[in-house]
Amino acid sequence: MASSIATFFNKFLYLLILLLHLGCFIFTTTTGGKKAPPSKKRKISPSSQPSSPSHPKFKTHKALSSSWHFIKHLLSIKSCKTPKTATSQLSPQSSAATSTTTVSAAAAHSLVSLTQPDPDRKPPGSCPESDISADTNLFFPLRNDIFPCTACGEIFQKPHLLETHQTLKHAVSDLSGSDPGHNIVQIIFKSGWPESKPSPTITRILKIHNSPKILAKFEEYREVVKSKAARHGALTRRRDERCIADGNELMRFHCSTFLCDLGHSGDSSICSQQFCNICGIIKSGFSPKLDGIATLSTSWRAHVAIPDDVEREFRFMNVKRAMLVCRVIAGRVGSDSDDAEKADGGFDSVMARTETGVYTRLDEEELLVFNPRAVLPCFVIVYSV
C-alpha cells in the first residue's frame, strides 16, 4: 500500500514539474513593459483564429522561434578559409610550372614551384585570428576589425595598412645554403656564365614575396595574352600553342643596382630611397614609363648590359648590382619594333637587334616587353665579380 502511494506521488510530482516548465513559455511579456494600445475588435470566424497573430498559440510559436534563431545566431561562428582554399585561388599561378625555359625542364619546373606563396603566409585581408567580425555579427558589432600580421604579429585596423606593412617590412626572405631553392637558383645563375670569364661570387639569394595585387595583375595579363592569341589563331588559321597554353612564359634575367643593405643579416624589409632600383621594382614592379623592359636569356648577358664602371663611378653612393630572376609573359614575339608599335601588329614583345643590325635567336639576345605586368621578379641575387 505504501509503495503504491509513493509511486502515485512521484508521477504527480513529475506532471507538476512538466506543467510548470511549459508555463514558462506560455506566459510571454510585452516589450519594454508597456501594454500595446487596445485595438478595435472585429468578428472573425472560429476557423481563422489559429492563424491570427493575436492567438495565444501563435504568440507561443513566435516566441519559441525567435528565441531559437537568436540562440543559433549567438552560437554561429565566422569560419576562416582553409589554406587549401587559399591555395586553390592561386591555382592559375601553379599552371606556370609547365613553361619551358632555356635551362633544363626540371630546373625550370623547380624554379616556378619555388615562387609559389608559402602556406603559412596568409595574404593581406584574409580572415584574422579573431572570429568576431563587425560585418556579419549584428548582435555584437565591433568598432574596428583587426588584421594581424602573420609574420611579426603587429595588429592593423585596415587591410590596406596590413598590405603596405607586408610589402615594405616582409618583402624578401633569405634562402640559406641548406634550402633546396638556393642550389637551384645558384645553378641557373651560373649556368649562363662563360668559363673564360671570372666566376661571380654570390653573396646571398633572396626570395621575393610579391603582394596578391602584383600576382593578380600578372595572371590577368597572362589571360589577356592567351585570349588574344586564340583570337589571332582563329583569324589567321595559325595557332600559337605556347601562347594559348601559358602566354609563352619564359624565365629571363634583369640586372639592376641598389643602394641599401637589402637582405643583410636576415633583414626582410626594403628601403624607400629614390635611386634604389631593386627595392623600387620589388615594391611597385617595373616602371610603365620605360621604353620597353629589357630581359635577357642568361645572367652573363644581363650582367654586361650594365657598364662595369657604374659601381666605381658611384661608389660614394654605395651603389651595388644585383640580378633579378624573373618570370616573363612574352606572348607573341615580334622581330621589328616598328611593327610591334602598330595597333594591328598583335605583338606582345619584341626581339632586339644586335650591334650589326641582324636579328638573332630569342635565346641569344634581349627581349623587350612593353607591359610591366608581364614581368614578375621572383629572386634577387646579390653578387660580385
Automatic annotation (TrEMBL):
InterPro entries: Znf_C2H2_type. Residues 45-55 have a biased composition (Low complexity). Residues 31-59, 111-130 are annotated as: Disordered. Keywords: Membrane, Metal-binding, Transmembrane, Transmembrane helix, Zinc, Zinc-finger. PANTHER family: C2H2-LIKE ZINC FINGER PROTEIN. This is PolyADP-ribose polymerase. It comes from Vigna unguiculata. The keyword Zinc-finger applies. SUPFAM superfamilies: ADP-ribosylation. The keyword Transmembrane applies. The chain crosses the membrane at residues 12-33. PROSITE patterns: ZINC_FINGER_C2H2_1, ZINC_FINGER_C2H2_2. Residues 147-171 form the C2H2-type domain. One of its GO terms (molecular function) is zinc ion binding.
